[in-house]
């Protein structure tokens, strides 16, 4: 599976824990989601309606060697924020080529399917699909 090193490390972190510890790790990513820069407003970001909770993203590919990803999700949506935090940690600052090479279903390696509904997992898939669409 082709993944940038930071994303591979996130996947590895999830594979090393079991059961409820996976949910705790997801919540850590939710808490660590970086705030938006002062010059970026949620209204200017792309909504991801496939997510169960409101989520907005912005892809800055002005430098294809250092793509910037920004996410906004409310604190009361920890699963959605966690997914965004995983993508921010694993893909922000990576190259356009490396991001486009990430398998669309990489999130299955996290082992969350038994803990989170398929509908919620689809939100992670939708976020990655929208990022890739912007990069193409």
From TrEMBL:
Residues 12-133 form the Fe-S metabolism associated domain. InterPro entries: Fe-S_metab-assoc_dom. Signal peptide: none annotated. Belongs to the SufE family. This is Fe-S metabolism associated SufE. It comes from Mycolicibacterium chitae. The lineage of its organism: Bacteria, Bacillati, Actinomycetota, Actinomycetes, Mycobacteriales.
């Amino acid at each position: 599976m082709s993944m940038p090193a930071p994303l591979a490390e996130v996947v590895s972190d999830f594979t090393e824990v079991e059961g409820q510890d996976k949910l705790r790790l997801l919540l850590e990513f939710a808490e660590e989601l970086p705030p938006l820069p002062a010059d970026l407003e949620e209204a200017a970001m792309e909504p991801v309606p496939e997510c169960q909770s409101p989520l907005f993203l912005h892809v800055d590919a002005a430098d294809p060697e250092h793509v910037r990803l920004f996410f906004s999700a409310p604190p009361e949506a920890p699963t959605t924020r966690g997914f965004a935090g995983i993508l921010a940690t694993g893909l922000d600052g990576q190259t356009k080529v490396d991001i486009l090479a990430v398998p669309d279903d990489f999130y299955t390696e996290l082992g969350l399917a038994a803990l989170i509904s398929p509908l919620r997992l689809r939100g992670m898939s939708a976020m990655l699909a929208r990022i890739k669409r912007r990069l193409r």
